[in-house]
Structures are given as C-alpha cells and as structure tokens.
Design brief:
Its EC number is 4.2.1.118. InterPro entries: DSD, Glyas_Bleomycin-R_OHBP_Dase, Glyas_Fos-R_dOase_dom, IolE/XylAMocC-like, VOC_core, Xyl_isomerase-like_sf, Xyl_isomerase-like_TIM-brl. By secondary structure, the chain is α/β, with parallel strands linked by helices. The protein is built from 17 helices and 24 strands. The longest helix is centred in the middle third of the chain and has 23 residues. The chain is elongated, with a radius of gyration of 28 Å. 48% of the residues are buried. Bound molecules: 3,4-dihydroxybenzoic acid and magnesium ion.
C-alpha cells in the first residue's frame, strides 16, 4: 500500500516536515498550501527536495468554496483555480483536493454543482490536473460521501473523482459500507484520521482532535475493509489536525503516523480474513499477533535497593537471590515476579523501569514490535542464559517478551535457581500503571496496543490537585495483561533531578487483602493514608455496615463495588516515583477502582507535595 501524510499533521518548517516524513518511511506527502505559502523554498526547490528524499508529492490541498455560486463568483473561482494549477505544474503535483463549499455556496442545486465542477475539470485537464472532490462534514449543501459521489457521477469527467476522508464519514455516523460499491478508478484519493469519541460540533472536533489511526474510537479497520473491497489501489494518506501533534517533535510524530498505517494494514487484513492480501491495495501484514497470557515480571530501577526490597518483603514477597552476573535481584510471590535493578540507577531513587509479558513465541513478539518501529533494547546474554527479546517504548519503559510458562526460564539465573515455597498471599501482577507525558499520550496508546496486541478501553478523566488526569486502560480481553496509562499534567513532565517524576505503580492481586494488609502492617509497612471524609462518603454510597467500614478505615483500604462484584485495594507510600498497589477482586469486578483514584492522587499530593505553584 502506498502511504502518504499531509504536511499539516506535524510541526516545523516545510523542509523539516519533508525530512521527517521521508525518514519515517512514507512514500509521499500531501502539500498543505499554507505550508508552502510560508516557506522560503520555491516550488521548484520543494519538488527537487522531494525527489532527493524519494518522496512523491501526491496532493495539493485544499481548494475551497468553489461550487454552488453565482456566475461572477464562478469566474473568479476559475481564475483562482488556474493560478493554483500553474503552481501545481511547478511543484509537479497532478491532483488537487476540492473541498465541498462551506461558505460561499448560495444555490442548492446538484446539477449546478456538477456543471460548475465540470467547468473546473475542463480547465484542470488543460493543465494535466485531476480534481479529488471531498465532502466536508460541515459542507453547506454537500456534506456526505454519498452526495459527493452523486455529484462526481453527474460531472462525468475523467479528471474528476472522489477524495474519501474517514473523519468526515465516521464523525457523522455515516455507514461507510457504500464505499465498496464505488468504482475504484473514481476514488482519486483517501485520507485517514481517527478521533476520540466526543460530543461537540464536528468542525471543532475535526480541526483540533483528530488522531492517528488506532489512537481514537473510529472503526478504521472496517472502513478500510470497504475501501479494499472497492478494488482501490491508490494512495492512503494521513490527514490529522491535532493541536498537540502540531507542537510535538516532528520526527517522532512522523514515526507515530507511520506506525499507525503499518498497524492499520495488519488490522484490516485481520478484519477481512482470508484473501485480504490479494486485493489490489496490497495490504502489508505484520509478523503474527500473539495474545499475551500474563505478565512475565515488572522491574524497578533504584539506586537504593534496600528500600524497595523492604517494601516487597513487608508485602510477603520472597527474595529469590541475585542474578549470577548482573546487579539485579528477583523477588516473587505467587505468579508475581519483581526485579530490582541497580544498573544505570545513579540519581534514581526508584522508578518503574520496565515489564515483561508472556507470549507463545518471544522472538516473534520482537519481530512484530520491530516491524512497528519499536527500537530494540540491546541485552547481552551469555552461554546458558535465556535470550531476552525486548524494545523501548516512547516513554523509555523497557518491555520484554517472555515465553508462556508458570516459571520463566530466566528465573533460574537468580540465586541457587530453586523455586521456594510460596507464601500464598499474593497471586500475581494485576496491572502496571505508567505515566505518559501529555504530548506523548496518543502515541503511547497506539504503541502499546500495537506492539503488545492489547485493546484500548475508552479513556476516563480523574480529577487531582495537579489537574485533570487522563487515564486509559489497554488490556487483553481476558484481563491477564492490563496496562493503565495516565497522562502527566503540564508542568510535571520534565525530569529534572530536583523534580520528582510523576508516580507510576505496579499492582499485584491477592485473594485475601485483609489478611495481607494486617501482616504488612505488623511487618512495619505504612500505607498511603486515606482521609476520614472518604469513609463517610463510602458509608453513604454503599451502605456498608459499621464493622466492615471500621476495618477498611483501620487498614486504609479503598473500596468499590459495581454490578459485577467488589474491589478492595491499598497503596504503599511512594518511593522516588514508584509505589505499589495491592488489589483484591471479588466476584466479577473488572475495573480499577476509578472512583477512588482522586482520593489516591490527592493523598499522594498531600504527602509528597508533587507540585507547588
Ligand atoms: O478543516 C478543513 O478545512 C479541511 C481541509 C481539508 C481537508 O481535507 C479536510 O478534511 C478538512
Ligand atoms: Mg480531508
């Protein structure tokens, strides 16, 4: 599949954008006119640079407010178009995007729209230009792809076809199934955008909140499926208007975009099933997706291993010993394995530095991640040691694939290699919670879902003293692997040594949190203190009996309940930027105690003074 991206998606000058798109691996770009207008490069220089970079210039856009106008306006519009056709000749671009009229149209008449666009087509043909007509979702008279297709049929000119933009179609809730029936040769261009599901006016939604495929709530694999079935074999481009992307690192955003198209091709192939790769579009499939069966381990990096070790011991973890060769130790409890790593830890009090997931074939997991442009983590292993397969996520977390097993092979490299009797309290790792800088949140959602084959659940927002914390869970269907991403509010994202990193945590589950909490307290552990007001509210909301309530309060336990079951949990104190959570899920409770998150964030804020304005 030939890939392209509109220059409007990313930050920087036109030259920086072109360099970044080429480096990320796009075949071509759409020139957004504004980017050219403000550029010191002449059209010929842009063309030469594109040639040098191996980029095709696929589309010139947008040309606005053309059809449905009176005679005098039409003449002016044709003159305006001709100037752009000449410019396109200098650039060497053969396709222009025509947006349906949103402003100047005064006459609602399909025949008139068609005859005026036919006049444009004749002029375009003289300049060797093709027109791709796009229905903007807020077009004055033409605002659905079905309507724009009707106009294109009426125009009936070889130089006029459609531009299909997933945002305009899906934002309105239109059924994209009809795309499969449009003759492929009349689809001149395809633009893709995803978006979070929001209820707001469609123009503001489009101009500010578009995201790359896989980062929002649209079913783009189904959309692509219809396109594939039409027989389309042209360019598939990204057109994302997003306030954050336009102020983020240009190269990184370009890679994020490229990853989204790699991922979407694979998703579409899976959606279509057998024969998907034989269609003319030429979808590229990735090395096989594997459902992780559980966490292999979680890793804490620290220059002060004693503090972390103390916490683990208080929670009932067993010390399994030091690695034969590396300054790392292994602690385990049930299926939960935590590695304390002191390598490269200078200046790091404690942080969640990585985790592993188990898949049937670890090497295949890495191959897929590499194809998704995840940078590999170099890890030496010597004879007799298990090979390690890993990559670094955009947030610098190191992620490794292990092979599905009760006890991973690498665990034998610690201590005397034996598996001690289990204390029985903790059963496994429940979830890992990672903080994401505000400008990298969408990128991380796509990165982790695509590389680990997780599903993104709808996001939530949690109020905290530092701001509204956006949160999203990525997980396997069965919940064996759950990753929670929390956005780091503005002002906290920088990692200056003097500023604490925003806290991240590892949550483990148990079948008896009351007993575990009592033992931990007896062992000297202090939990994050929960205010009295919380328990008053709990009593009011759930009608808990006095004894249960007193027990929760005594142990600083948090509580939630829904139609499926109950959830009890507590948090340790924060060390550096890391803390631990213990959870007990009763019945079919499948959430994370979201109503309690503001209590936790406020308590940590009180305790740690994360930020002072
Ligand atoms: O928001 C706009 O005006 C606009 C312009 C060009 C496009 O291709 C589009 O989808 C939207
Ligand atoms: Mg568009």
């Amino acid at each position: 599949m030939r890939t392209s991206i509109a220059t409007v998606c990313i930050s920087g000058t036109l030259e920086q954008k072109m360099l970044a798109c080429a480096k990320a691996g796009f075949d071509g770009i759409e020139i957004f006119e504004q980017d050219l207008t403000v550029s010191p490069m002449s059209p010929e220089e842009v063309r030469a640079l594109a040639d040098r970079l191996g980029l095709t210039l696929d589309l010139f856009q947008p040309f606005r407010d053309f059809e449905g106008v009176d005679e005098a306006t039409l003449r002016a519009n044709l003159a305006r178009a001709e100037a752009k056709f000449r410019l396109m000749g200098q650039l060497g671009i053969d396709t222009m995007l025509l947006c349906s009229n949103v402003g100047t149209a005064t006459i609602d008449d399909d025949e008139l729209f068609a005859s005026q666009i036919r006049a444009l087509a004749k002029l375009a043909a003289e300049h060797g230009v093709k027109i791709a007509y796009e229905a903007l979702a807020w077009g004055k008279f033409v605002n659905t792809y079905q309507h724009s297709w009707k106009i294109v049929e009426l125009v009936d000119h070889p130089n006029v076809g459609l531009c299909l933009d997933s945002f305009h179609i899906l934002s309105r809730g239109d059924d994209p199934a009809g795309i499969a029936d449009i003759p492929a040769e009349k689809i001149f261009f395809v633009q893709l955008a995803d978006a979070p599901v929001l209820s707001m006016d469609v123009l503001s939604w489009s101009r500010h909140y578009r995201v790359f495929p896989g980062e929002g709530g649209f079913e783009l694999d189904a959309f692509m499926g219809h396109l594939v079935r039409s027989g389309y074999d042209g360019i598939v481009s990204l057109e994302i208007f997003n306030d954050v992307f336009r102020q983020s690192n240009v190269e990184r955003t370009a890679v994020d975009g490229m990853r989204s198209l790699i991922w979407l091709q694979d998703k579409t192939a899976a959606h279509l099933g057998a024969g998907a790769l034989d269609y003319p579009l030429g979808l590229a499939a990735l090395p096989g997706a594997q459902e992780p069966s559980g966490f292999d381990y979680a890793e804490i990096r620290t220059e002060d291993p004693e503090i972390v070790a103390g916490m683990l011991a208080q929670l009932g973890f067993t010390f399994r010993g030091q690695h034969r060769r590396k300054p790392v130790t292994l602690w385990s409890a049930g299926e939960a394995r935590i590695i304390i790593n002191t390598q490269r830890s200078r200046g790091i009090t404690a942080e969640v530095s990585g985790f592993g997931v188990q898949v049937p074939e670890a090497a295949l997991g890495t191959r897929r991640a590499t194809a998704l442009k995840a940078p590999a983590v170099p890890r030496h292993h010597t004879v007799g040691e298990a090979p390690l397969h890993g990559f670094t996520a955009p947030d610098a977390t190191e992620v490794f694939f292990g092979t599905t097993a009760d006890e991973p092979a690498w665990a034998a490299e610690f201590g005397d290699g034996t598996t001690p009797a289990d204390t029985g309290a903790i059963t496994g790792i429940d979830h890992v919670n990672l903080a994401q800088p505000w400008q990298a949140f969408d990128e991380s959602v796509l990165f982790y879902t695509s590389t680990l084959n997780l599903t993104a659940r709808p996001g939530t927002e949690v109020p905290s003293p530092m701001g509204l914390v956006r949160s999203q869970v990525l997980r396997t269907e069965d919940g064996a692997v759950r990753l929670a991403l929390n956005i780091v509010p503005h002002g906290l994202e920088d990692s200056r040594a003097s500023a604490p990193r925003y806290p991240e945590h590892i949550a483990v589950h148990t079948d008896d949190i009351i007993a575990l909490a009592r033992r931990a307290v007896a062992a000297g552990m202090e939990f994050l203190a929960v205010p009295n007001n919380y328990y008053e509210d709990l009593a009011a909301r759930f009608g808990l009996d006095g004894e249960t309530l007193a027990q929760l309060q005594e142990l600083n336990l948090l509580y939630d309940r829904d139609e499926h079951g109950e959830f009890l949990h507590f948090y340790t104190e924060t060390v550096g930027s890391m803390f631990l959570e213990v959870v007990e899920r009763r019945g079919g409770y499948d959430g994370y105690g979201a109503p309690n998150a503001p209590v936790r964030l406020a308590a940590q804020f009180e305790r740690n003074r994360l930020m002072t304005y």
